[in-house]
Model the fold of this input.
Amino acid sequence: MNSAQSAFSLEGKTILVTGASSGLGQQIAWSCAQRGARLVITGRDAGRLQETFERLEGTGHKQVQAELTDAADREALVKASGTVNGVVHSTGKQMLSPIRQLTEQLMTEMYNVNFLAPVMLTQQLLRANAVAQQGSIVFLLSISAHIGTPGVGPYSAMKSALLGIIRCLAREQAKRRIRVNGISPSVVPTPLWGGIGEHLEPQRARHPLDLGTPEDVANGAVYLLSDASRWVTGTSLVMDGGVVL
Amino acid sequence: MSAVDPFSLAGKRVLVTGASSGIGRQIAISSAQMGAQLVITARNAERLEETARALPGEGHQSVVADLSKEADIDRVVAGAGNLNGVVHAAGMARLAPFRMINRAQLDEQFSANTFAPILLTKGLLAKKRIEPNGSIVFISAIASHMGPVATGVYSATKGALLGAMRSLGLEVVKQGIRANCIAPNYVRTPMLDGLSRGGGGIDVGLDQTPLGMGEPEDVAYAAVFFLSDASRWITRNYFIIDGGLTVAADIYA
Done:
């Protein structure tokens, strides 16, 4: 490997991927393993996590079943992970509600899953000194962190809130050269979007480069995890297939 | 790697301007390392030849050209062949406090930093030189957000690229061509050395950059990402790579 190729490699790196039992997290785990990383994957569904695990290229990977809204589960995950060079927070849940109809219960759930779990997992990892120097922390956001869409308020707010964490944490961890970034995809057919189907046709029409694939998002994650992006911090990589209003 | 490497540039022909030094030179070298066939251009024949010798692989091409001259743009377009990628890395910076700005400085820097990339892109599109799924990358600068002292002209020339890129991206997406902008903080290059030598104790914000000074490689790897199929779904993006400098500033305010 020449210097450019090794900059884009993940060999010798251990990467923790949450939400790895389906959708974007699953593909991110597979793509990282393909580029040589050792993976620690976590998800709620043991059966589907096992499916992800079985298709990881290479050896030395680990799987940890965990409910990340639970502090004890997060602690167990941090213990099992050991030192990691990268973290990708891919857990997420979409619940639509116009603000006028919003309930405290729905908002609390969105907060617990989309904000509190990734933020406190990050806190526990840092507290345990489990993120290596020059490591990379990546939060899966959404285009909705940057734009307004009717009915998407609760989700949009939690993803925007992570932008605030990204910026402040980027500055806090710069002395250890740990980088903190987001990825903000538009529509990628995954279980979160109800999978592939006719319900996505209006969305498809708005995306000149078609809807995204989990591979597209995973490639963005690979770039942000690799040393190729060692000077990138505090940003979020928007990927949207050239979406038009 | 088991599957086809999405970050590879093998089989892609990439035009890089400003390839005789600094960011352009490194983008050419890193792209060649990732397998691309390069067409490199710059004004200085000798230094362009040095870059050409540093490129791994074969089939590269050098064109000495002054992109502030339309005839030279036409010559680059005519000789470039069909391209899968273009990186507009040629650029210049001259410091001047606002009250000292004159028309000649405006003409010189807009010509090099703004008009040349726009007119070269126009020429390539008019001659259908950019293949479907091709990638056009502009190199802007976060100076246009931070506005360091005495960079009024430079910051204006770089800021203009954002609007140009956004409109271009919309127009060429029908052919699957992507257009993106990389906006770097200052990295260690001859251009920066020149600014420092200019005296005046210019403050380019390096002290405030959380990750310290960047290297040309950092910008080059971002360019590789935007040229490669790994960024297939990313267009009209404005990508800041600055070691965290703008994180502390509300650049959208």
